[in-house]
Amino acid sequence: MKTTRISDPQPLLIDGNSLVTRAIMATALDDLKAGGIWTGGLYGSLSSLASFLSTLEGDWTPASSIFMFFDEGVHPERKALIPEYKEDRKEKRELLPPEEKEKAMAQIAMAQEMFALLGVRVLRFKNREADDGVAALARLAVDVRLGLGIPDL
Predict the structure, then answer these.
(1) SS3 breakdown of the chain: % helix, strand, coil, rounded to 5?
(2) Per DSSP, which regions of 5-152 are E strands?
């Protein structure tokens, strides 16, 4: 297994939760499903990544230089410290009934597997948010690209 140094070549750091969730919510009301399985978030996130990669100048970014971060949601300690944290997103989350939301959000796990199969470095966190991982790795890198509109950075 090849080890990728953070500077070899210029890495692209992506908040995978943000990317996939945005794609899910953009397609959720259109009911994009294949055989009863929600697929709009998978298609949308892959399309967004491909579109973003096509805009990069200079060296091509191989999949092994893409680091995509995922988490398990807002950590309870952060929510306790800042009760209004991400409350502005509540309205969007309530667009779907709970049983449909669960099916739609199952795409996050499928996206992790999809991106890993494509060679993307998928990193998962339990007690931190994905954008915290992006920020931590960005601080270590000499030259890094941040991708796809991470609003919390």
Answers:
(1) 50, 15, 35
(2) 12-15, 33-34, 37-38, 66-70, 121-124, 145-147
CA dist., res. 144 & res. 19, Å (int): 18
Q: What are phi and psi of 136, to 5 degrees?
A: -65, -45
Cα distance between residue 111 and residue 49, in whole Å: 12
Closest by CA position to 147, among listed 4, 5, 16: 16
Would the pTM of this model clear 0.90, i.e. be above it? no
Spatial CB neighbours of 38, under 8 Å, sequence gap ≥ 6 = 24, 28, 32, 103, 104, 106, 107
Each residue's pLDDT expressed in tens, for the chain with a length of 153 residues? 444 444 456 788 889 988 998 898 888 767 666 777 888 899 999 999 888 888 876 666 677 788 899 987 766 676 677 666 666 666 666 777 888 888 888 999 999 999 999 999 998 887 777 877 787 777 776 666 666 554 444
How far is the C-alpha of 93 from the C-alpha of 98, rounded, in Å? 9
Contacts of 71 (CB under 8 A, 6+ apart): 17, 124, 125, 126, 128, 129, 130, 132, 133
